[in-house]
Amino acid sequence: MKIEQIYTGCIAHAAYYIENNGEAAIFDPLREVQPYIDKATKDNAVIKYIFETHFHADFVSGHLDLAKKTGAKIVYGPTAKPNFEAIIAEDNQEFKIGNVTIKAIHTPGHTLESTTYLVTDENGKEHGIITGDTLFIGDVGRPDLAQKIASDLTQEKLAGLLYDSLRTKIMPLSDDLIVYPNHGAGSACGKNMSKETTDTLGNQKKVNYALRADMTKEEFITELLDGLGAPPAYFPQNVMMNIQGYESLDTVLDKGKKALEPKEFETVANEAEALVLDVRHQDAYVKEHVPGSIFIGLDGNFAPWVGALIMDVKQPILLITAEGREEETITRLARVGFDNCLGYLKGGIDAWKAAGFEVDSIKSISPEQFAAEKDQTQLPVVDSRKPGEFSAEHVENAINIPLDFVNSQLSEVPKNDDFYIHCAGGYRSVIMASILKARGYHNMINVEKGIAGIRNAGVPLTKFVCPSTAK
């Protein structure tokens, strides 16, 4: 038996490929399906099944395109009601991949249809469990996503179901089983996932807070919901795409790979009310960019930030990319459901300038310059990192406006005075600066290299101290 984890770091996603005796299965595939087809072809295998652990929220699965191109059957767990042909497995129903057995174990909680797949090898030995978002390494799936689809499914009710699933379906299994989750650290589908992407079930029983043997259901619900932030706005939209269906990625790519001359680019932007998305490196964007464009760099956590900051997956988008990265950008947008890309600027920013159009820029300084002038200028400092990062260390008297909440906290941004803005390493602050510029703020000064550079430049940093513990 061959079992392979296919991990995509930018969205912290793991798909799985299992092959035995000329047959193969794919679990939770990404939108771009050709790599799975290529793997099966290399192994002289036919893809027989596409197993889905649940209706995903953080990405659009490739199940429909993969089924269409290979003839494989799509499998969901009990209670799933997709708007397309699929096998709805019964609890404990078994499937064969060559001489390998896949058992569907219904484990509701993250969602109602969530299902874990127990893999038994060709020798009859139970090898591992593909757990989806039921069980992560160091964490379990958040139980507050399905309520966006069905209002009667409260997060408390789903958390209770997840407790039961873990205790009655997962924890009784053998300790030596390998746990293969759908996500790792960085995913918004949990709150405390490990950087490791596999582990034994036995070790998880020892170290995973949610699997403590003496934990009551009430304790589980309280701990699971504690500190659970609001899910990104695109999550319920992705769920509906996974349930109802979507355009083929081939169609999305054909539409998005339209090269537009600068004048046509401007016309389409105005007529379609398209968002102009610049995905180049932040240093290039700071130097010069199309006025009104939004920066989300392709080389950072691109797809999650697109999903968090562009509220509607149907938003028309026009692209400005580094040369040769157009298709990659369109594909990565489609992974999280943003299928309405109308084309890209042919020749990039150089063609835009050559056509006589204006460019804008963001004032940006080095950490050393910030260190030299901040005490003299006494300008406000906006820190765009997450609250936990801010609490750990920050510039004294800085204002914390996390990038995730820039739209809801605009009133806290200094409107009349110049201000410094920074993040951890220089990526998020430029995203925020681009959003603020598009909303009429032109008084920010970006600090390059973020808090890491500021620290190295010798600027004293402080940390948040809870008043109840302060001496």
TrEMBL record:
<dbReference type="InterPro" id="IPR036873">
    <property type="entry name" value="Rhodanese-like_dom_sf"/>
</dbReference>
<protein>
    <submittedName>
        <fullName>Beta-lactamase</fullName>
    </submittedName>
</protein>
<dbReference type="GO" id="GO:0070813">
    <property type="term" value="P:hydrogen sulfide metabolic process"/>
</dbReference>
<feature type="domain" description="Rhodanese">
    <location>
        <begin position="270"/>
        <end position="361"/>
    </location>
</feature>
<dbReference type="GO" id="GO:0046872">
    <property type="term" value="F:metal ion binding"/>
</dbReference>
<keyword id="KW-0479">Metal-binding</keyword>
<dbReference type="Pfam" id="PF00581">
    <property type="entry name" value="Rhodanese"/>
</dbReference>
<dbReference type="InterPro" id="IPR001763">
    <property type="entry name" value="Rhodanese-like_dom"/>
</dbReference>
<dbReference type="InterPro" id="IPR044528">
    <property type="entry name" value="POD-like_MBL-fold"/>
</dbReference>
<dbReference type="InterPro" id="IPR036866">
    <property type="entry name" value="RibonucZ/Hydroxyglut_hydro"/>
</dbReference>
<feature type="domain" description="Rhodanese">
    <location>
        <begin position="375"/>
        <end position="463"/>
    </location>
</feature>
<dbReference type="GO" id="GO:0050313">
    <property type="term" value="F:sulfur dioxygenase activity"/>
</dbReference>
<dbReference type="GO" id="GO:0006749">
    <property type="term" value="P:glutathione metabolic process"/>
</dbReference>
<dbReference type="InterPro" id="IPR001279">
    <property type="entry name" value="Metallo-B-lactamas"/>
</dbReference>
<dbReference type="Pfam" id="PF00753">
    <property type="entry name" value="Lactamase_B"/>
</dbReference>
<dbReference type="InterPro" id="IPR051682">
    <property type="entry name" value="Mito_Persulfide_Diox"/>
</dbReference>
